[in-house]
UniProtKB/TrEMBL annotation:
One GO molecular-function entry: acyltransferase activity, transferring groups other than amino-acyl groups
SUPFAM superfamilies, per the entry: Acyl-CoA N-acyltransferases (Nat)
Short name of one Pfam family: Acetyltransf_1
Keyword Signal belongs to the record: yes
Organism for this UniProt entry: Seminavis robusta
Keywords linked to the UniProt accession: Acyltransferase, Signal, Transferase
Protein name: N-acetyltransferase domain-containing protein
Domain of life according to the entry: Eukaryota
Source organism phylogeny: Eukaryota, Sar, Stramenopiles, Ochrophyta, Bacillariophyta
């Protein structure tokens, strides 16, 4: 039994190595974990199908509910996806898959959830291309970077940021990545952005808000290869 488990562990490890060497632009695998077992693998995908759009929308709805499991069970998730699908013809035009300008990336991981073929979305980000404006160069502007609670601090956010930068460099010839973040209310996100090379470009105080609300436009120069 012990030798059988060792063999399975070795085969699993070899599979992970093979996946890490396989070039898949639309689904790049990453491994996370810090125990002695084979670490779980998540992969970054560019959203190119209606089903992926539904995956991201379901994930966003779950995130809005502060990480609760309200739509994580199979039945609720299926009903939610059907409701969104019914409205899809009116809204799909804004997504890349529908000819729009909103580009999305998502991160997936294996799960016991059966409504999505045994995988769960653990992160997502929205991206738009911006032409040069004022002192800012051509750039990709990212919004709504979210990582599922319980999967944070595992490299998923960093991997999503890298996917955005790679796309901006290779496809759009962008010179920078920009974003807006609530600096005082979201210090964890600020630390992530600073760690991967973002720097403060400009502070904007929205005086019409009830509370003092400081945002920052973060800026990361894309290095040309």
């Amino acid at each position: 039994m012990r030798s059988s488990n060792l063999l399975l562990h070795l085969l699993h490890h070899l599979l992970q190595v093979f996946l890490s060497l396989l070039f898949l632009p639309s689904a790049t695998p990453f491994s996370i974990g810090n125990n002695n077992h084979a670490p779980p693998t998540f992969q970054i995908e560019r959203v190119t199908t209606i089903e992926q759009v539904l995956d991201v929308l379901s994930f966003r709805a779950q995130s809005i509910r502060h990480g609760c499991d309200a739509i994580d069970d199979d039945e609720s998730n299926v009903l939610f996806r059907q409701k969104i699908r019914d409205r899809m013809p009116q809204s799909i035009q804004r997504f890349e898959v529908g000819g729009g300008t909103l580009i999305q990336f998502l991160a997936r991981m294996m799960s016991s959830n059966t409504s999505n073929n045994g995988v769960v979305v653990v992160g997502a980000v929205d991206v738009r291309y911006c032409h040069p404006e004022g002192a800012l160069p051509s750039r990709v502007h990212l919004k709504n970077l979210k990582v599922r609670h319980g999967y944070r601090r595992k490299g998923i956010g960093t991997a999503l940021l890298k996917a955005v930068e790679d796309m901006g460099r290779t496809e759009l010839d962008a010179q920078a990545v920009t974003l807006i973040v609530e600096r005082k209310q979201n210090p964890t996100a600020v630390r992530l952005y600073e760690r991967v090379g973002f720097v403060l470009q400009e502070d904007i105080q929205e005086g019409f808000m009830i509370q003092s609300f400081i945002e920052e436009i973060s800026y990361r120069q894309i290095e040309k290869e």
